[in-house]
Structure formats: structure tokens, C-alpha cells
């Protein structure tokens, strides 16, 4: 990637790709003015720098359910018509241990088809529940041709014990969300229980000690079209919490208003004696509020992750991280809110509303009933239980920690979340979120005092997945993502991608630090001694003192009259690049073309030979990324005569106009004024544009003999070979390329202008929605993938998509 290419036609194609690619990137950067800053670095699927481990088998698809064994050495995978166990003992590999086929028969598929379902899309058996039942067995439930079936699986031999129908334990519809949790061999589920998916139910199955299975009372609609996303146990209170969103009937003045909720039931509830027999006496629900000040709430819950409290803390310190979207969004937009178990408990012990069956209205309960929301009402009076039956909605909402979202993205539709806590080098605890976008990117977000940052973005699949699954093994440091093709293991950090102390510290990744002893960026598991980090401010100046290596110049031998293109890659999307050289003072600025991708192009003449340095600035810190010494190669004395004679003449003539240029002064200046860094992208663009045009006209005037040489020797990708093409004796003219680049830059500017115009148009005062692309064209999704596919897959060098 850091290679230099001289002028020949592949360069042109390369420039096209680079210029165009960068254009798109710039547009995206400009458009992202939401609260969450853009990812600092970004890796496409199968990037060499950020290695992922994939597991796939030709006949394994739709890995919709993932379950990590308690010792985190086995990953159980629920797929289409199969359940697998993978050995994930070594984090570098995933090895198939066992697989069991679990498909409906031909007749059952036909049945499904007769009921109006698509035999290949809807009628296979999609595994929707996979739980560790006890020390020896797993429990599984699958949609099974729209006729849910369940089974016990011996975790070792992987032999399966089929059971009869399993209505009520997982949905008929494979695309429907549900949740389940097993505790001491008992199964708690939240799902719909009918073919059409209209009857929601929360139940306990396999109840122990001969107590009855319990479900929701059906005399009232306790739930309204709920979409369940998660469940969690509070072992201290023996209560279970279910998370979902549903239609909020308490606001009957708004049609179809959805509300995020948490519902509770007591694990040992056995139902009442006469009233509420075999029905929960402990069911209650409360609204979950996720709202920025003066904004419409994020009211649709997409996923919920339970972060256990640190060792030794009370379970009341358990945190729930919810991904929310909004019913009123016109484009991709989402937020993360955190709820504390203590706050949920407080709301459930507070006051309740009661449902009036005559006028179908909710009203606040005037007197407090201490038994509402409590466990152990089994022997309560009928009077009390009748009150319980109709007073199951709390008066207050559960408010998030910090009273609002901790992350808001006006760019991304986050769908899944996993969270880990980590101890940084300074001994402080930091929280890292892994957010999976709808379009297949995993965003690693660090939470800091000054707000969240997207440390990196990793593409994990290319085809949008209708059903997504993600599991985090904090002890192994791996995020497992289920896709339609298999399972992908994403290491939570890959510190070696940061080559210098500067980059390591600027990354501000709580999981990475610069080791002063080993002189490399590495994970913190080897101890926190002598590790450099500056998570809150990225203070490179202080932290990396004495750690910066003085990199030598890269020698660029060139023949005169070739276009030299010096590449410089941004170390991160947040960096701005500046080229410096003493040539810039002595020569007209328009001899140098700075491309949007950061590269510098110019014609090699006796006066442009010299040193060029590319500097990156990020967070107020400047670092030399690349330093080149462009020098002339010894002029070849005897050369094999080439078939094209005119090339020779072009070559000779090209020297002439530059020979009058006065000798160079050795004054170092920065071409880009060091203030106003923010405006780098736009202003630079315009500069380049004008200078390029001038350059072009100069050439056409002074060099009428220059012709475009389109005799190609090969069209192979020059980017993949870092060697210098100008070492080859074959000479090429540059005019065509320059015109091409100019046109491209012109196009680029045009796109930019249009983009800016668009932004201007969309920027409405007081509205957070600040998107570049029109909301209903889904172009954001496509665009981000386009960038990733723009980078050529054969690139051997670490591919850092910026
Ligand atoms: C299964 O995967 C295919 C793509 O391979 C996708 O089209 C389909 O919607 C998936 N089905 C479910 C239930 O996830
Ligand atoms: C686990 O549950 C299965 C299914 O109910 C049962 O056959 C097995 O004996 C149980 N194992 C233990 C150790 O309780
Ligand atoms: C309810 O009453 C039964 C006997 O009538 C008793 O065995 C049981 O312990 C009581 N339950 C509670 C929670 O008090």
C-alpha cells in the first residue's frame, strides 16, 4: 500500500478507484454529525490486519441461536435443521465436535406448505431455543415446519431425545423473536403460542418438586403484541425479568404507540389456590424509558444484554444494556440505554395502575397495596388476587442510569449488543460495548467520561441477516456472531494493528496498551506493569515520550519525467494529513497534486527531487506517517531499443519546460496552514481542483507533443505490488493520467458539492436527524458496504479502510 507508482495506465485505474473511494468516504464522514463519532478505524470482512475466524460447513445455514457452555470451551449452535457443538477451547480456531440433524419429514413440510407457508423459507426447522438444562443435557426448541418441536440433547454424545409437540415453548414463525431461560432444570419462556403469532405467553415448564407449570392469566390481555428480546434472572430475589416492546394501551389517545417494557415473575410462583390457579400471581410490567431531553423517546427495544455486577457487589448492581430504535425514525437511528436492577426493583415495589374492565381504561390505584409485585402470594385471599389480576402495570417508568441514552447514533441501526467490563492500565474499570449493525458491522464502542467513541468497526457479514445472534465470551476475549453462512469469531481486540506508541495511545482502546518493555502495542492480560495508555484524553505527547521511533526515509528512485505518486494512508479516519517539503516553497504549488486519498503526485524533474513528508494530525498530536526521499535513478547508459520510438522523443522533450526552474531554497514549510484542520477535507479538495486544472493547461500549452500512451503491458493491479514500476526501462507518458485524475477530481468535487448541498438541505434546526442520504433509500447500508468492497480483495498489505 505504501508503494509508489510511476505513470502508466494501471495508475490511472488505481487513481480512479482511490479518488472515487475516498470521495465516498469523505461524503460519509461529512454526513456523520450525529452524537456518536464515526469509527476511528474500519476493517472490511477478511481484512488481513483484523483476522476473524470463520466456521462454516456446506450444509450449515442460519445459525440463529448461539449458546456458550459454562466453562466457555464449547459453543453450541442452533442452525437450520441441525444443532452443532464447536470446540472453542483455543480462541484461534473453531472445530466441529458434534452435529445432529433435526429436520421435519417430507410429509411435515408438505403440511406446512398446505397451510400457506413457503417450504424453503418458512418450513425448515429453525432452532430458536438452545439452553443448558442440567449438567448433562441441553434443551432445544425449533419452529419445525410451523409446528414447534423440542428435544433434549445429551451434551456429550449429542444424541437427541425427541419429545412430542412443544407448543408454547418457541414460536411457529422462524422470523419471530422469543426468549427463554433455564434455571435448575426449569424452563421459562416468553413467546407466542399459536400459528398466527397472535397469542403471547410467558410460562414455566418442567416445574420441579411436583409444583404445577404456570402461565399468564388469560382473562385479560396482559400483553399487547409484544416482541420479546431478552430475559434475565435475579438470583437474590428469585425473580425473572423479561424485556420486550409492545403496544402501550395506557396511552389510548395515541394509536399503536409502542412502549419498551420490563416484566417480572417470581421463579417459584405456583399460582393461587382458587383465583389465578396455575397462573402467575407475581406478573407485573413497567415501562422502560430511553429518551434524550426534548426528543421523542426511543421506544422500540431491539436487544438487551445483562452485565453481571463486579465480583463481591450486590446483584442490585446488575446492569441491563438495551438497544433501542424509535417508532418515529425516518432512517437508521438507534440508542443504548442502561438500566440498573435496583431501579427496576424500586419501580415494581412502587405504585400500580389498575385496569377498569368496564370502560377499558387504566387508572392509578388510589390506595397502595403492599402485596402487588411481590413473591409468595400463593396463599393470598381471593380479594387480593383479584386486585393482582387487574393491577399489573406500574405507575412509574424505569429511568435509565444517567437519565438518558449513553449512546445515540443517527447513522446506525443497531440490532444486537454485548458488553464487557475491563480493567485498564490505571486500574480503573471501563465498559466496552459491541454493537452489531443491521448491515453487518460490529462497532466496538468505548464509554469514557467525555462520551462514547467507536474504537473500531469490523465487517462480520456482507448479506443483511434477518435473524441475528451474538454471544460474548469475556474470559476468552471473543465475540461470536451467527450468520446465514456459519459462525464468525471476532477477537475483542487486535492490539498489534497499532504499529507505534502514538497509534496505540490514540486508539484509546481500554483493551490495548503500549508495553514500554516489549515496545509493542499489546493486550493487558500480561499484566499492567509498564503499560502506556491514555484513555480519557489520548495524551500521546506525554505518554509516548521516548517511545517514538524515528523512521528513516523511504528511498524512491525515479526516472525524470515520470509522474511520481507518493502514497500516504491515514492511520485513522479521525486523522488529517499534511504533506511537507522544502520543494513547496521554491516551486509553484500547482505542480503538486494532493489527492483525496492522501497521496501526493507530481512530475519527477531535477527540481522536484527531494524529501517529502506526510504528517497525520489527530487529537492535537502530529506524527510523521511516511517520509520519502525522491531521487533520480542512475540514467541508463545502454538501453535495449524499444519498439516505440515516439516514446523516446516524448521522454526527451518532457524535461525541457522544467529546466528553467530556479534552484531550490532549503526552507521547510508546511503546505497546509496548520490552523483550520477541520476544513482540511473541503478546502484541500478545492485547492487540488484548481491547481490540477492549471497544471493541465500549462502542459497542453508548453508540451504539445506529449501524447497519451495507451500501449499497456499489463493491467494487473499495481497496488498489490509495492515495487516501483518506474524501475522498468519502459517509459510511459503521463498526460492521459493527469487528465484522467483531473476529471476524476472534478467529479469528486461535484459529488462533494452535491453532498454538502444535500446536507445543507437536510439540516433542520433543532432536529438531530442529520443525514446525508435520504432516509428511505437505504443507501447508507449500501454505501458502507460499497466502501468495503471497493478495497481490492487481493491486497496483501493490511487493509485499513478509511
Ligand atoms: C436463512 O438464511 C437465508 C440466507 O442464507 C435468509 O434468506 C433467510 O431469511 C434466513 N432465515 C432465517 C429464519 O433466518
Ligand atoms: C437432565 O435432564 C434430562 C432430561 O430431563 C434427564 O434425562 C437427565 O437425567 C438429567 N440429568 C441430570 C444430571 O439430572
Ligand atoms: C400455603 O399454604 C400451604 C398449606 O395450606 C403451605 O403448605 C404453604 O407453605 C403455604 N405457602 C406459603 C407461601 O405460605
TrEMBL record:
Residues 1-35 form the signal peptide. PANTHER family: SEMAPHORIN, SEMAPHORIN-4A ISOFORM X1-RELATED. The chain crosses the membrane at residues 734-757. Residues 35-492 form the Sema domain. Residues 643-656, 675-708, 771-783 have a biased composition (Basic and acidic residues). SMART domains: PSI, Sema. InterPro entries: Ig-like_dom (IPR007110), Ig-like_fold (IPR013783), Plexin_repeat (IPR002165), PSI (IPR016201), Sema4F_C (IPR045791), Semap_dom (IPR001627), Semap_dom_sf (IPR036352), Semaphorin (IPR027231). GO terms for cellular component: plasma membrane. Belongs to the semaphorin family. This is Semaphorin-4A-like. Residues 564-631 form the Ig-like domain. Gene3D superfamilies: Immunoglobulins, ligand-binding face of the semaphorins, domain 2, YVTN repeat-like/Quinoprotein amine dehydrogenase. Residues 663-672 have a biased composition (Polar residues). GO terms for molecular function: chemorepellent activity; semaphorin receptor binding. One of its GO terms (biological process) is axon guidance.
